[in-house]
């Protein structure tokens, strides 16, 4: 880790008027600083800022500094969000990690984290080592020749499925962006991972009220039960009326370069009987457009099976 200056602004104005890298829980930033992947000269500890609070009175609102465990265990939080949070990392990390920081975490691609290896995210134009390298954990949706890294967040998948928004604040003002629109596929600029502008800070996460999201779940398939990133995951919320799917929200993780909304699967479910046969038919198109790599050719099939399992569990919730 290289030397850096640390300050702790106690007001939002002070934080936004100072150039530096924001530090919340530190569960991603500190790791990357230790590896010299990130080498900020000035780090701003923002934990004293008034960006906390959980409000479930009109939809769900989370202050960006709320810790993952606190949100997961809060009454009124939709099951798909709680489940995604509780399957993320370890309890110790969830006690430290903020919701805003989780949404901004960087990929767990080993080549990104190894400064000796070419990586277009870390060093644009250097190449993507994963394309012809160790790519079992990598993406099959939204990839390009420049990058095949997956997005690491579990809860971002649930939030994308529920049309959540984030509030971004800078000296230029305040804006609100849907999380699905916030993340970017790599294309030819994989170093640009999201729509966060210079000097901006996430201050709040908002999930619109969706009463039927009480019937929801998050299924995560991984190599081990604890403290492991997803090979594939699915976030599902279902509105079932008179035995039929009146509405559905479905998104996938572990397979895309961003949390991947499965709109075609949702459309295939609308108005259909809430049966295993319907779920299997809808999930059969989940991997459309997939581009498997040498070591992850199993992922299209795994994605379909994961979506079916999540739909079945969600219908019984």
TrEMBL record:
Keyword Oxidoreductase: yes
Highest taxon above the source species: Bacteria
Record-linked SUPFAM superfamilies: CO dehydrogenase flavoprotein C-terminal domain-like, FAD-binding/transporter-associated domain-like
Molecular function, one GO term: FAD binding
Record-annotated FAD-binding PCMH-type domain positions: 1-212
InterPro entries, per database record: CO_DH_flav_C (IPR005107), CO_DH_flav_C_dom_sf (IPR036683), Diverse_Substr_Oxidored (IPR051312), FAD-bd_PCMH (IPR016166), FAD-bd_PCMH-like_sf (IPR036318), FAD-bd_PCMH_sub1 (IPR016167), FAD-bd_PCMH_sub2 (IPR016169), Mopterin_DH_FAD-bd (IPR002346)
Claim: Oxidoreductase is one of the keywords in the record: yes
Keywords of this entry: Oxidoreductase
PANTHER family associated with the record: OXIDOREDUCTASE, XANTHINE DEHYDROGENASE SUBUNIT C-RELATED
Protein name per the record: FAD-binding molybdopterin dehydrogenase
Lineage: Bacteria, Bacillati, Actinomycetota, Actinomycetes, Pseudonocardiales
């Amino acid at each position: 880790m290289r030397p850096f200056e640390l300050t702790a602004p106690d007001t939002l104005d002070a934080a936004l008027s100072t150039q530096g890298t924001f530090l919340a829980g530190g569960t991603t930033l500190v790791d990357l600083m230790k590896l010299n992947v990130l080498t900020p000269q000035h780090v701003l500890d923002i934990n004293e800022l008034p960006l906390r609070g959980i409000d479930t009175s009109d939809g769900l609102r989370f202050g960006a500094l709320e810790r993952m465990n606190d949100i997961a265990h809060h009454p009124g939080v939709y099951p798909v969000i709680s489940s995604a949070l509780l399957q993320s990392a370890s309890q110790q990390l969830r006690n430290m990690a903020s919701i805003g920081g989780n949404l901004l975490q960087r990929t767990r691609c080993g080549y990104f984290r190894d400064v000796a290896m070419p990586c277009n995210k870390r060093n644009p134009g250097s190449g993507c080592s994963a394309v012809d390298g160790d790519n079992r954990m990598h993406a099959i949706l939204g990839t390009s020749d420049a990058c095949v890294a997956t997005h690491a967040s579990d809860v971002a998948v649930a939030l994308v499925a529920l049309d959540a928004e984030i509030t971004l604040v800078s000296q230029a003002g305040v804006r609100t962006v849907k999380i699905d629109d916030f993340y970017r596929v790599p294309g030819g600029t994989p170093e640009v991972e999201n729509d966060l502008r210079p000097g901006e800070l996430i201050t709040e996460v908002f999930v619109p009220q969706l009463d039927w999201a009480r019937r929801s779940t998050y299924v995560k398939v991984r190599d081990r039960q604890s403290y492991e990133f997803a090979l594939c995951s699915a976030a599902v919320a279902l509105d079932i009326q008179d035995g039929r799917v009146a509405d559905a929200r479905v998104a996938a993780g572990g397979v895309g370069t961003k949390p991947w909304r499965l709109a075609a699967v949702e459309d295939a479910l609308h108005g259909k009987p809430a049966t295993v046969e319907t779920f299997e038919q809808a999930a059969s198109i989940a991997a459309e457009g997939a581009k498997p790599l040498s070591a992850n050719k199993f992922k299209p099939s795994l994605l379909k099976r994961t979506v079916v399992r999540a739909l079945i569990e969600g219908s019984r919730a």
